[in-house]
Design a protein that fits this description.
InterPro entries: Alginate_lyase_dom, Chondroitin_lyas
GO molecular function, one term: lyase activity
Domain Alginate lyase: 26-67
Protein name: Alginate lyase domain-containing protein
Structural class: mainly alpha
Number of domains: 1
Distance between the termini: 37 Å
Keywords: Lyase, Signal
Strand order of the largest sheet: 1-2
Shape: flat
Order of helices and strands: HEE
């Protein structure tokens, strides 16, 4: 690697090693449950649903493609 990148890579490795002290990590460690109520369920909200800007609470979400 070029010398300017060596320091960045070393810094990235140090940050990653420090982050590993917070583990072990698990996909079942989630603050919110998916709709089925089982921590082992996978849930991925669609990226094209956005809060309604005309409603104070943003509900219901609106389908907005391409955003």
């Amino acid at each position: 690697l070029a010398s300017p990148l060596v320091g960045l890579v070393d810094s990235l490795i140090t940050c990653a090693e420090n982050a590993m002290e917070f583990g072990p990590f698990s996909v079942t460690n989630k603050s919110e449950l998916p709709p089925g109520g089982d921590r082992q369920d996978y849930y991925s909200p669609a990226p094209y649903f956005w809060p309604d800007p005309d409603q104070p609470d943003g509900l219901p979400f609106m389908r907005v493609d391409g955003k």
